[in-house]
Design a protein that fits this description.
mainly alpha; single chain; globular
């Protein structure tokens, strides 16, 4: 992890890296604008909390199912074709949302959107990894993640604001246009070429070396399903204004941590990042379960942003660093598959919990999920250190 003394740092900000960062910003902006507005659209179409959870969750499950294929095709077909195809599918599906007549059709197009999202995000993370020097991977992935965080700072608040001025049809066309901008930028990238014969053609479902950090991520992103899907409805029920500011503060706090969390991971490893970050997420969930006023809402936003902004790039770097060069795409696919699974299960599970037990119970359950991730991490670290001691004793 340590930089060698006196050795100049390898360059991160190349032309292609800037292009993938900018393309990532636009696709995430289009996606983030739909995140808090899809539940409102389902509600306008006559859906209840259970249907909202299903419509939100099915998107992540379709992305989940396609990620293993995306991970393999990245190594066998090439980065460019997977990424550009995913962007095209995303643009077409999101652009169609406002023209759909009912929830059943929206459900179907959310499945299609998930396919495009699964392809594009798996490819984008892998392309960024190709372009970042290995000695600065945590730092580089942190910078790459900033583009998504800036989109996160703007997107939800912008989407919610535009719903007060524009019909949903125009909102979703704007989101599709942002995806089109990502396509234009990404078409100028020089992608890593596939070397024939270096990758097995047999489909692999996951990358074993990425499982531990991905499993930890799963229990953390369950919380994301509860926040993105039901927090606007929860604050409305409690008559607490300022949900747009929540998303802005959350994203700004995430952005702030991205500037140093990746570098801290490169120097100290995941131990220095995961424990404090996950603890902040736990506190944020308990505050949301309580939620008496705006100040508690905003405090939870900052704590959640600081925690998630620290943990996510560190876990992604951990997932990639031990994967073979020819399986980085699959490692990224494994990582984001668990991300999707957490968000999807969270949205569907919390739809049921919110319907029968109230919104506060969503965040109490989320706190338990974070605690499980912390305990799992402690177990992984204990097993790893025990294994090292055993090797030393044998030596």
């Amino acid at each position: 992890m340590e930089q060698q003394i006196g050795k100049p740092k390898e360059r991160i900000w190349t032309k292609d890296f800037i292009l993938i960062v900018c393309a990532n910003f636009f696709i995430f902006l289009g996606f983030q604008m739909t995140l808090p507005t899809i539940p409102l659209y389902v509600e306008e179409l006559g859906g209840n909390n259970q249907l909202i959870g299903v419509v939100v969750g099915i998107f992540t499950f379709s992305a989940l199912l396609l990620r293993p294929f995306a991970g393999n095709w990245l190594e066998t077909k090439g980065r460019g074709i997977v990424y550009l195809s995913g962007l095209v599918i995303f643009v077409i599906s999101v652009g169609s949302f406002g023209f759909l007549a009912g929830i059943s059709l929206l459900f179907m197009m959310r499945v299609v959107q998930g396919i495009g999202w699964g392809f594009s995000t798996t490819a984008s993370g892998t392309i960024a990894t190709d372009l970042i020097p290995p000695s600065r991977r945590g730092e580089g992935l942190g910078y790459y993640g900033v583009s998504g965080n800036i989109a996160m700072a703007i997107g939800p608040a912008l989407g919610l604001t535009l719903t007060g001025f524009l019909p949903f049809k125009q909102l979703f066309l704007i989101c599709a246009g942002l995806g089109l901008m990502a396509f234009i930028l990404s078409s100028r990238i020089k992608y890593k070429k596939v070397v024939p014969g270096t990758v097995k053609t047999k489909l692999a479902i996951y990358e074993k070396s990425a499982l531990k950090p991905s499993l930890l991520l799963f229990f953390l992103t369950v919380t994301f399903g509860g926040i993105a899907t039901f927090l606007p409805l929860y604050t409305a029920e409690k008559q607490i204004a300022g949900i747009q500011l929540y998303f802005l503060l959350y994203a700004l706090a995430t952005l702030a941590t991205r500037m140093f969390a990746g570098q801290l991971y490169d120097r100290k490893g995941h131990t220095a990042v995961f424990a404090p970050g996950s603890l902040l997420i736990l506190i944020a969930m308990l505050l949301l379960a309580w939620l008496p006023n705006n100040m508690v809402l905003y405090t939870a936003a900052v704590l959640y942003g600081l925690g998630f902004g620290s943990v996510q790039p560190a876990l992604q770097a951990w997932a990639i660093e031990k994967a073979p060069m020819t399986r980085r795409g699959l490692a990224n696919a494994t990582f984001f598959s668990f991300f999707d699974l957490g968000v999807g299960i969270g949205a569907m599970m919390f739809g049921q919990i919110g319907q029968f037990f109230g919104y506060s119970s969503i965040y109490k359950t989320s706190a338990i999920s974070v605690l499980i991730s912390i305990l799992l991490y402690a177990f992984f670290v204990y097993k790893e250190r025990k294994g090292r001691v055993g090797v030393v004793e044998q030596g």
